[in-house]
Amino acid sequence: MPTVNWRYEHTVLALCTLAFTGTMVARLVVSPLVPEITTQFDVTNGTVGLALSGMWLTYALAQFPSGVLGDRYGERRVILAAVGATAVASVLLAASPSILAFGLFAAVLGVGAGLHYSVATTFLTRQFDDTGRAIGVHVAGGPLAGLAAPPAAALVGSRHGWRAGVLLGAAVAVPVFVLFAWRVRPTEPLRPDQPMGERFALGPLAELLSRREILYTTALATMGAFTWQATASFLPTFLEVGTGLSSALSALLFSVYFLVHGGTQPVTGSVSDRIGRDATAMVTMGAGVVGYGTLVAAAAFDLGLPVTVGAVGLVGLAMSWGAPVQSRFMDLLSDAERGAGFGLVRTAYMVTGASGSVVVGAVSDAAGWPVAFGLLACVMALGLATLSANRLLGLGY
C-alpha cells in the first residue's frame, strides 16, 4: 500500500483549520437560538440582531490588530489566545444575566474569534509554497462550521435550553486549544522589538491600502464579502419565501450550500496555484452570475426544485472566491508586510462588505426577494467585469 507522506506543515494546516472552525462554531450557534433568547430577556429580534451585528463588527475590526500582534508575539501565541478567548467568551455569553451583558459578551466573542484568521493565514503562507491550496483548505473550516453548528445548536437548545446551545462553542474550542498547544511548535515573532505604536501609524497604513494592486484586490474582496454576508443571512428566507419551498427543505438546501462552499474552497485554491488567481476568481464570479440569476428566475417563473438545487450549488461555488482572492493579497504583500498587511485589508473589506445584509434586507422589503437576489447577481457580474477588463486590456492591477 502507498504511504501518506504526512509532514509537520500538514499538522499545522489541519489544526489551523480546526481552530478556524472552532471560532466560527461559537459565532454560528447563536442564530438558531434567537427565539429562545428573545423570550428569555423579553426583547425584540432587532435587539438581539443588534448584539449579533456588534459581534460581527468587532470580529472584522480585530483582523488588523491580530496581524500586528502576530508579528510582535508570534503566530502560535495569538492563535492560542484566539481559541482560548473564544471558549471563555462562549461561557460568558451562555451565562449572560441580561441582554446588556449578552451584547457585551457577544462583542468580546467577536474580538476573540477575530484574532485567528489573519494570523493563521500568514502562518500558513510561511509553511507552504502552494499557498492557494493551503488557504483554500483553511478557509473551508468556516463552511464546515456552517454545515454542522446551526442544526446542532437547534437540537441542543430545544432539549436543554439556549444556554446549553451557546456552550457548544466552548465545547469545540477547548479541545482544539489543547490540540494546538500540544502539536504546534512555538513560532518566532517577526518584529518582536518594534513599538506597537509604529504599526498603527496612519501614514504607512494609508500607503499600503492606496497601492493600485491592493486597492483593486480589496475592491474584489469587498464585492465577494458583500455577497457572502447577504447569502449567509438570507438564502434560507429567499428559498422559503421567494421560491415557495418548505422551511425544512430550505434549511436542507442551505446545508447543501455550505457543503459545496466548503468542498470547493480547497479546489479553487489549488487551481489558482496552477492557472492564476484572476482566472480562478473569474470562474467563481461567473458561477455567481449564473447561480444568483437562476435563483431569481426560479422564483419568478417557478422553474422547479432541480433548477433551484443546481443554482444553490453554483452559489456555493461562487462563494469560494476567498481562496484565489486572498491568495492574491499574499502574492502582493512582502514577507514583512503579510501579518499586519493582510489583517488591514481584511478589516477594510469585511467592514465594508458587512453592509450586504443591511442592503439586501432593505431591498427585499422595498421590492421583493427576486430583486434583492438579482442585486447579488449584479454584484457578481461587476466583479467578473472588473477581472475581465484587467485581464483583456492589460491594465496591470
Description:
This protein is mostly helical and 397 residues long. The protein is 82% helix and 0% strand. The chain has 21 helices and no strands. The protein has helices at residues 8-28, 34-41, 45-61, 63-73, 75-94, 99-114, 117-125, 131-139, 141-160, 162-166, 168-183, 196-199, 202-209, 212-242, 247-275, 277-301, 305-318, 322-332, 338-353, 355-367, 369-392. The chain is globular and about 60 Å long. The N and C termini lie far apart (47 Å). The model has no long low-confidence stretch (mean pLDDT 89).
Architecture blueprint of SSEs:
Blueprint lengths: L7 H21 L5 H8 L3 H17 L1 H11 L1 H20 L4 H16 L2 H9 L5 H9 L1 H20 L1 H5 L1 H16 L12 H4 L2 H8 L2 H31 L4 H29 L1 H25 L3 H14 L3 H11 L5 H16 L1 H13 L1 H24 L5
Helix pairs in contact: 1-5, 1-6, 1-8, 1-9, 1-11, 2-3, 3-6, 4-5, 4-7, 4-19, 5-6, 5-7, 5-11, 7-19, 8-15, 8-18, 9-15, 14-15, 14-18, 14-19, 14-20, 14-21, 15-16, 15-17, 15-18, 16-17, 16-18, 16-21, 20-21
Keywords:
Growth Hormone, Chain: A, 397 residues, 82% helix, mainly alpha, transmembrane, MFS_trans_sf, 0% strand
Write the element-wise H/E pattern from the N-terminal end onward.
HHHHHHHHHHHHHHHHHHHHH
Regions with little confidence, pLDDT below 50 for 5+ residues: none
Globular, elongated, flat, extended or rod-shaped: what is the shape?
Answer: globular
Per CATH, the class of the largest domain reads Mainly Alpha
Number of discrete helical segments? 21
Mean pLDDT: 89
Total strands: the figure is 0
Examine the secondary-structure arrangement and name the CATH architecture of the largest domain. Up-down Bundle
CA(first)-CA(last) distance: 47 Å
